């Protein structure tokens, strides 16, 4: 059974850092592009970042460029989202999602991803 599990969320002060992990089980991530998405209360889910299956291509939302870094370790079947200089507006539930693709690039549209994790809460507050 294909499963994605996020971890690493929590409460952090503004300016702090967190590293989220997205671990896959039941399948190998080698042929999957991975996206990170977030949803704040009362807001729509938005794309944060994505990484191609090879790791050679990444994309970021403008709001997180220069602060967040996505990476993957296919040997560990895990994708990471390093979040630095966190802001209160980064608060939300963060989800990882997977899609099979032969493309060398990745896309940020949530509707493109059929497989989703359960999410992890990130709260940025003093």
Description:
This protein has strands spanning 3-7, 10-12, 18-25, 32-39, 46-51, 58-60, 68-73, 78-83, 92-100, 115-116, 120-124. The protein is globular and about 40 Å long. It is mostly beta strands. The model has no long low-confidence stretch (mean pLDDT 95). Strand 7 (68-73) and strand 8 form a beta hairpin. The strands form two sheets. Strands 2, 4, 5, 6, 9, 10 and 11 form a seven-stranded mixed β-sheet that branches. A four-stranded antiparallel β-sheet has the order 1-3-8-7, with no helix packed on it.
Considering the chains and any ligands shown, give keywords for the structure.
126 residues; mainly beta; seven-stranded mixed beta sheet; globular
In short, what is this structure?
This protein is mainly beta and 126 residues long. It contains no helices and 11 strands. The model has no long low-confidence stretch (mean pLDDT 95).
Q: What topology does this entry show?
A:
Layout (H helix, E strand, L loop, with lengths): L2 E5 L2 E3 L5 E8 L6 E8 L6 E6 L6 E3 L7 E6 L4 E6 L8 E9 L14 E2 L3 E5 L2
Parallel strand pairs: 2-11
Antiparallel strand pairs: 1-3, 3-8, 4-5, 4-9, 5-6, 7-8, 9-10, 9-11
